[in-house]
Specification:
The protein starts with a helix and ends in a 10-residue tail after the last strand. The strands form 3 sheets. The protein has a 6-stranded mixed sheet, with helices on one face. By secondary structure, the protein is mainly β.
Length: 230
Amino acid sequence: MRTAAASVLLAVVALAGGGTGTDPLPSRMTDTGGGRQLITAVAADLRATTGTVTWWDRRRGHWVEAGRAPARFGAKGLVEGARRVQGTDTTPTGLYDLPYGFGTQAAPEGTRIGYRRVGPQSWWCQDNGSLSYNRWVEGLPEDCRPGDAEKLDSYGTQYAYALVVGFNYAQPVRGRGAGIFLHVNGRGATAGCVSVPREAMRRILAWADPARRPHLAIGTEGGTTALARP
Protein backbone atom coordinates (compact mmCIF):
# COMPACT_ATOMS: atom_id res chain seq x y z
CA MET A 1 0.00 0.00 0.00
CA ARG A 2 1.34 3.47 -0.88
CA THR A 3 2.02 5.61 2.19
CA ALA A 4 0.92 9.21 2.49
CA ALA A 5 4.55 10.35 2.46
CA ALA A 6 5.23 8.40 -0.73
CA SER A 7 2.18 9.93 -2.40
CA VAL A 8 3.33 13.42 -1.51
CA LEU A 9 6.82 12.64 -2.85
CA LEU A 10 5.45 11.36 -6.17
CA ALA A 11 3.28 14.45 -6.53
CA VAL A 12 6.27 16.73 -5.96
CA VAL A 13 8.33 14.82 -8.54
CA ALA A 14 5.51 15.10 -11.10
CA LEU A 15 5.12 18.83 -10.53
CA ALA A 16 8.86 19.28 -10.96
CA GLY A 17 8.76 17.61 -14.36
CA GLY A 18 10.03 14.24 -13.21
CA GLY A 19 6.89 12.39 -14.30
CA THR A 20 6.57 11.22 -17.90
CA GLY A 21 3.29 13.09 -18.39
CA THR A 22 4.84 16.45 -17.54
CA ASP A 23 8.14 16.12 -19.42
CA PRO A 24 8.42 18.36 -22.50
CA LEU A 25 7.38 16.52 -25.66
CA PRO A 26 10.90 16.38 -27.16
CA SER A 27 12.16 14.69 -23.99
CA ARG A 28 9.68 11.86 -24.61
CA MET A 29 10.72 11.33 -28.25
CA THR A 30 13.13 8.64 -29.39
CA ASP A 31 14.71 10.92 -32.02
CA THR A 32 14.77 14.71 -32.29
CA GLY A 33 17.30 14.98 -35.11
CA GLY A 34 20.37 15.51 -32.97
CA GLY A 35 20.19 19.30 -32.98
CA ARG A 36 19.35 21.90 -30.38
CA GLN A 37 16.18 23.19 -32.05
CA LEU A 38 13.02 21.26 -32.89
CA ILE A 39 9.57 22.02 -34.28
CA THR A 40 6.80 19.57 -33.39
CA ALA A 41 3.56 19.44 -35.39
CA VAL A 42 1.01 17.29 -33.56
CA ALA A 43 -2.50 16.21 -34.58
CA ALA A 44 -4.93 14.27 -32.43
CA ASP A 45 -4.98 11.33 -34.87
CA LEU A 46 -4.44 10.51 -38.55
CA ARG A 47 -7.88 11.83 -39.54
CA ALA A 48 -7.33 15.26 -38.03
CA THR A 49 -6.79 18.35 -40.17
CA THR A 50 -5.81 20.64 -37.29
CA GLY A 51 -3.40 20.50 -34.38
CA THR A 52 -0.55 22.41 -32.79
CA VAL A 53 2.92 23.48 -33.90
CA THR A 54 5.43 24.12 -31.11
CA TRP A 55 9.03 25.18 -31.47
CA TRP A 56 11.63 24.23 -28.88
CA ASP A 57 15.18 25.07 -27.82
CA ARG A 58 17.54 22.73 -26.01
CA ARG A 59 19.24 24.66 -23.23
CA ARG A 60 21.59 23.21 -20.62
CA GLY A 61 20.39 19.70 -21.37
CA HIS A 62 16.68 20.50 -21.23
CA TRP A 63 14.04 21.25 -23.89
CA VAL A 64 12.33 24.61 -23.43
CA GLU A 65 9.28 25.78 -25.37
CA ALA A 66 10.02 28.88 -27.46
CA GLY A 67 6.56 29.34 -29.00
CA ARG A 68 3.43 27.63 -30.25
CA ALA A 69 0.62 28.20 -32.73
CA PRO A 70 -2.47 26.42 -34.07
CA ALA A 71 -1.65 24.27 -37.10
CA ARG A 72 -3.43 22.90 -40.14
CA PHE A 73 -2.65 19.65 -41.93
CA GLY A 74 -3.73 17.93 -45.13
CA ALA A 75 -7.38 17.92 -46.14
CA LYS A 76 -7.32 14.09 -45.93
CA GLY A 77 -5.41 14.04 -42.65
CA LEU A 78 -2.00 12.49 -42.08
CA VAL A 79 -0.23 9.30 -43.18
CA GLU A 80 3.06 7.57 -42.41
CA GLY A 81 5.68 9.29 -44.52
CA ALA A 82 7.04 6.05 -46.01
CA ARG A 83 3.54 5.09 -47.19
CA ARG A 84 2.48 8.44 -48.60
CA VAL A 85 1.27 8.66 -52.21
CA GLN A 86 1.48 11.88 -54.19
CA GLY A 87 -1.77 13.75 -54.78
CA THR A 88 -3.61 12.32 -51.76
CA ASP A 89 -3.85 15.58 -49.77
CA THR A 90 -2.22 13.90 -46.77
CA THR A 91 0.53 15.26 -44.55
CA PRO A 92 3.48 12.86 -44.11
CA THR A 93 4.42 11.99 -40.54
CA GLY A 94 8.07 11.62 -39.60
CA LEU A 95 11.19 13.59 -38.69
CA TYR A 96 12.59 15.93 -41.34
CA ASP A 97 15.34 18.47 -41.79
CA LEU A 98 14.58 21.98 -43.04
CA PRO A 99 16.80 22.68 -46.06
CA TYR A 100 15.96 26.39 -46.44
CA GLY A 101 13.30 29.04 -46.22
CA PHE A 102 11.62 31.01 -48.98
CA GLY A 103 8.84 33.48 -49.60
CA THR A 104 7.17 36.04 -51.77
CA GLN A 105 8.07 38.54 -49.02
CA ALA A 106 11.50 39.54 -47.78
CA ALA A 107 12.92 37.41 -44.98
CA PRO A 108 11.80 38.54 -41.51
CA GLU A 109 14.38 40.53 -39.58
CA GLY A 110 16.82 38.23 -37.82
CA THR A 111 16.42 35.30 -40.24
CA ARG A 112 19.61 33.19 -40.26
CA ILE A 113 18.50 30.16 -42.21
CA GLY A 114 19.06 30.29 -45.98
CA TYR A 115 16.17 32.15 -47.59
CA ARG A 116 15.16 32.43 -51.25
CA ARG A 117 12.92 35.19 -52.52
CA VAL A 118 10.20 34.04 -54.90
CA GLY A 119 10.30 35.72 -58.30
CA PRO A 120 8.06 35.68 -61.38
CA GLN A 121 9.81 32.58 -62.80
CA SER A 122 10.03 30.56 -59.56
CA TRP A 123 8.39 27.15 -59.75
CA TRP A 124 8.34 23.95 -57.69
CA CYS A 125 8.43 20.94 -60.02
CA GLN A 126 6.22 17.99 -59.02
CA ASP A 127 6.33 16.14 -62.34
CA ASN A 128 7.39 12.53 -61.69
CA GLY A 129 9.00 12.34 -65.11
CA SER A 130 11.19 15.40 -64.66
CA LEU A 131 14.84 15.53 -63.67
CA SER A 132 13.82 18.45 -61.46
CA TYR A 133 11.25 16.45 -59.47
CA ASN A 134 10.68 17.95 -56.02
CA ARG A 135 12.99 20.89 -56.67
CA TRP A 136 12.78 24.66 -56.97
CA VAL A 137 13.45 25.78 -60.54
CA GLU A 138 13.86 29.21 -62.04
CA GLY A 139 12.00 28.96 -65.31
CA LEU A 140 10.08 25.76 -65.95
CA PRO A 141 12.21 23.03 -67.60
CA GLU A 142 10.88 21.42 -70.76
CA ASP A 143 10.48 18.07 -68.98
CA CYS A 144 8.31 19.55 -66.19
CA ARG A 145 4.71 20.06 -67.22
CA PRO A 146 3.04 23.23 -65.89
CA GLY A 147 0.09 21.15 -64.68
CA ASP A 148 2.49 19.19 -62.47
CA ALA A 149 4.25 22.17 -60.96
CA GLU A 150 3.45 25.08 -58.65
CA LYS A 151 4.18 28.64 -59.76
CA LEU A 152 5.22 29.90 -56.36
CA ASP A 153 4.14 33.51 -56.76
CA SER A 154 0.60 32.29 -57.44
CA TYR A 155 0.33 31.52 -53.71
CA GLY A 156 1.07 34.96 -52.32
CA THR A 157 -0.76 34.27 -49.06
CA GLN A 158 0.51 30.77 -48.29
CA TYR A 159 4.04 31.30 -49.55
CA ALA A 160 4.55 34.76 -48.12
CA TYR A 161 6.87 32.90 -45.72
CA ALA A 162 7.74 29.20 -45.79
CA LEU A 163 10.28 26.53 -44.92
CA VAL A 164 11.05 23.61 -47.20
CA VAL A 165 10.43 20.32 -45.37
CA GLY A 166 12.95 17.59 -46.15
CA PHE A 167 10.28 14.99 -46.92
CA ASN A 168 11.26 12.98 -50.02
CA TYR A 169 13.88 15.63 -50.74
CA ALA A 170 17.45 14.32 -50.43
CA GLN A 171 16.78 11.23 -52.59
CA PRO A 172 13.31 11.69 -54.07
CA VAL A 173 11.14 8.64 -54.64
CA ARG A 174 8.86 9.22 -57.64
CA GLY A 175 5.21 9.15 -56.74
CA ARG A 176 5.71 9.72 -53.01
CA GLY A 177 5.17 13.44 -53.06
CA ALA A 178 6.76 16.80 -53.69
CA GLY A 179 6.48 20.32 -52.40
CA ILE A 180 5.87 19.69 -48.70
CA PHE A 181 6.38 22.93 -46.79
CA LEU A 182 5.73 24.62 -43.47
CA HIS A 183 3.95 27.78 -44.58
CA VAL A 184 1.35 30.44 -43.84
CA ASN A 185 -2.31 29.46 -43.52
CA GLY A 186 -4.56 29.64 -46.53
CA ARG A 187 -8.34 29.40 -46.36
CA GLY A 188 -8.48 25.91 -44.89
CA ALA A 189 -6.71 22.58 -44.73
CA THR A 190 -3.64 22.05 -46.91
CA ALA A 191 -2.79 19.71 -49.79
CA GLY A 192 -0.28 17.94 -47.54
CA CYS A 193 1.79 20.71 -46.00
CA VAL A 194 1.70 22.04 -42.45
CA SER A 195 0.50 25.62 -42.08
CA VAL A 196 0.38 28.18 -39.29
CA PRO A 197 -0.76 31.81 -38.94
CA ARG A 198 1.37 34.39 -40.75
CA GLU A 199 2.91 35.93 -37.62
CA ALA A 200 3.84 32.48 -36.28
CA MET A 201 5.65 31.71 -39.54
CA ARG A 202 7.58 34.97 -39.27
CA ARG A 203 8.57 34.11 -35.70
CA ILE A 204 9.71 30.62 -36.69
CA LEU A 205 11.90 31.96 -39.49
CA ALA A 206 13.52 34.51 -37.18
CA TRP A 207 14.04 31.78 -34.54
CA ALA A 208 15.48 29.00 -36.71
CA ASP A 209 19.27 28.83 -36.44
CA PRO A 210 21.06 26.49 -38.88
CA ALA A 211 23.94 26.21 -36.41
CA ARG A 212 21.49 24.56 -34.00
CA ARG A 213 20.27 22.07 -36.66
CA PRO A 214 16.49 22.54 -36.47
CA HIS A 215 14.21 19.68 -37.54
CA LEU A 216 10.47 19.26 -37.93
CA ALA A 217 8.71 16.28 -36.36
CA ILE A 218 5.16 15.59 -37.61
CA GLY A 219 2.97 13.07 -35.81
CA THR A 220 -0.04 12.26 -33.71
CA GLU A 221 -0.87 12.09 -30.02
CA GLY A 222 -1.17 8.30 -30.03
CA GLY A 223 -0.84 5.16 -32.14
CA THR A 224 2.02 4.08 -34.36
CA THR A 225 2.57 7.65 -35.59
CA ALA A 226 2.75 9.18 -32.10
CA LEU A 227 5.70 11.48 -31.53
CA ALA A 228 6.09 10.56 -27.86
CA ARG A 229 7.05 7.16 -26.52
CA PRO A 230 4.11 5.24 -25.03
